[in-house]
Specification:
This protein has one domain: 5'-nuclease (Rossmann fold, 3-Layer(aba) Sandwich), CATH 3.40.50. A five-stranded mixed β-sheet has the order 2-1-3-5-4. About 55% of the residues lie in helices and about 10% in strands. It has about 140 residues and is an alpha/beta fold.
Length: about 140
């Protein structure tokens, strides 16, 4: 089953400031690459690029970040279109999530994922059949 990966997992895999989280996030990324089950959205790629080039210290070079984004494009990123916005607004209204989190959830649904790998939402929260899994509380490779 595909697993939707939120920006924070990608960033931790490249952030050397927390070696434990970097190791876990890197292990998740390696597993998702090997299994071919990783999914994400254009929003995630945009957030990743800005974060690793502007907010990390030390950050990635523009060339390194762009290469990562190009590689991750193999995961068939969900594009933000009008229908996705409508879905995100519906999720925002029903569940009280921020718009940005609602857009991530809507994209995960659009990618036919049953699991959202993120540190940003409550672990084991279920949102219309999508289960939130905290990558630092969920053993690598244990998702269906």
């Amino acid at each position: 089953m595909p697993v939707f990966v939120d920006t924070n997992v990608l960033v931790y895999a490249r952030d050397a400031s927390d070696s434990d989280k970097q190791a876990t996030a890197s292990a998740w990324m390696e597993h998702l690459w090997r299994s071919g089950s990783g999914r994400l959205s254009v929003q995630v790629l945009q957030e990743f690029y800005v974060t690793v080039t502007k907010k990390l210290d030390p950050g990635l070079s523009v060339d390194e970040a762009r290469e990562d984004v190009r590689d991750l494009a193999a995961w068939r990123p969900v594009r933000i279109e009008e229908a996705l916005l409508e879905s995100a607004w519906h999720i925002e209204d029903r569940f009280g999530l921020t718009f940005w989190d609602s857009l991530i959830v809507a994209a995960a649904h659009a990618a036919a994922c049953e699991t959202l790998l993120t540190e940003d939402l409550q672990h084991d929260l279920e949102i219309d059949g999508l289960r939130v899994a905290d990558p630092f509380r969920t053993p690598v490779g244990s998702l269906p």
